[in-house]
Amino acid sequence: MRRLLLALPFALLPLAVAHAHEDHDHEHGSLGAHEHGVGRLNAVLDGQTLELELESPAMNLVGFEHLATTAADKAKVAAARKQLENPLALFNLPKAAGCVVSTQELNSPLFGDKPEADHDDDDDADDHATDGKGAAAHEHHHDHSEIHAHYQFTCATPTALSNLDLSQVFKTFPATKKIQVQLIGPSGQQGVDATATATTLKF
């Protein structure tokens, strides 16, 4: 919130109105962005560099959003992480494109990473605790755990990457019903929704 307030004097709006407006957007924006069954993918093909950034509610990938404490839950998290660590297979990149992973980074509270806004969320714990889950919601106040995967590939023959095929993502994580994709490639920028029955996107 503080960062938003710093920017407000530059917006030519009365401060109180702008503040109320930002608060409203902030709350609804963050809730809208985290929707079970829906993931987000940014895909950029620039010359020989392909960059993919996947964000998904943990529910879509592992079936829950609390920190794994049981052996079964830990196994699910480890299995999902292993799948995410093999992006060439997960994103079905054609062998003809000759893509190799140059960098990859996975982040999630479920992987033991500290959530970015951990302390800011503490105030919300009581709000979440009133949603019928009682103490459990209070105990695991990361109700909205995300999994974030960021990959960069160098592709020897980028012309072979005419399509991005997400069929394997939907097969691997069947709780994912839709992926909102922002695609930037040689033919420009486009926003597309991919589903299990419409998995192929043209660059």
From TrEMBL:
<protein>
    <submittedName>
        <fullName>Zinc-binding protein</fullName>
    </submittedName>
</protein>
<feature type="compositionally biased region" description="Basic and acidic residues">
    <location>
        <begin position="127"/>
        <end position="144"/>
    </location>
</feature>
<feature type="region of interest" description="Disordered">
    <location>
        <begin position="108"/>
        <end position="144"/>
    </location>
</feature>
<keyword id="KW-0732">Signal</keyword>
<dbReference type="Pfam" id="PF10986">
    <property type="entry name" value="ZrgA"/>
</dbReference>
<feature type="signal peptide">
    <location>
        <begin position="1"/>
        <end position="20"/>
    </location>
</feature>
<dbReference type="InterPro" id="IPR021253">
    <property type="entry name" value="ZrgA-like"/>
</dbReference>
